[in-house]
Amino acid sequence: MRRIAVLTSGGDSPGMNAAIRAVVRYGIEKGFTIYGVERGFEGLIDGAFIQMDRRSVGDILQRGGTILKTARSERFKTPEGKVRAAQNLETFQIETLIVIGGEGSMNGALELSKEHGIKVICIPGTIDNDLAYTDTTIGFDTAVNTVLDAITRIRDTSSAHDRTTIIEVMGRQSGDIALYSALAGGAEYVLVPEVEADFNDLCRKIIEGKNNRRQHSVIIKAEGYPMDSSELTTQLAQRTGKDIRLVVLSYLQRGGSPSFHDRMLATECGVKAVTLAEEEISGKAIGTVGGNIVAFDLEDALKIEPVFNQELYDNIGILSK
Fold first, then answer.
1. Is residue 198 annotated as a catalytic residue, yes or no?
2. pTM score > 0.90 for this model?
3. Is the pLDDT of residue 210 over 90?
């Protein structure tokens, strides 16, 4: 009987469970035996394989996180680690490995494919939305909605105290969570790693808002912006004379039930991955273009550089005046 293994790797994202569910149930329907690998590439090295059936993925569609657990594996970065992982796949007679994760996970899958001939298919699971080959990644929509909910709540108390609030969101190399939540949440300013902001302009905007009797302001800052959030808070308070508070959302953005969009995207990607495996096609990264599910060459997909949406960034400044 043909066999597929599926794992989740790197940072968890809402919708990973929906993708696992689709791979398992659609795979069984197509005649595959499905194995889940616990703790990502770390579990692949340790041989943490569990055979999955339809009941294994019951009642997980709406759950955040990943039932297969996830981890970052330093051992997998070594030649010995990859050899051990490939040997375990051979031991369990796995024909295709489906990897759900971000850029680092996909690069790991690519190395396993090129160095050891393992058939791999990748599904984009990361809240950062930093894979340029696809319109969106699984978990991004949910993460932005989580930030929007936080902005709404923080505005209430900021208005009551006439203060400015800096909200730090995730995004070390990609500012997409900050960018999209700032625009949709009506923030007065956004700080992202892709753009070197004008500190004087930021201070001036806060002071002008105070002079125009603006009750409160919200600044969205991506964690990857090259200035410590606490230092930014202190400097803004000194320069503007305003009560400035910092809220760090951190891992709150990764949790929670996935949105409709992320459930659909994850499910369709999972089904597509099994379909490719059935057709004996590998070395692919699944994503969307114009809302359509598309399979890209994995190596080519990872070479595509992200393009920052400068128009959205500029519109935040215009609309917050």
1. no
2. yes
3. no
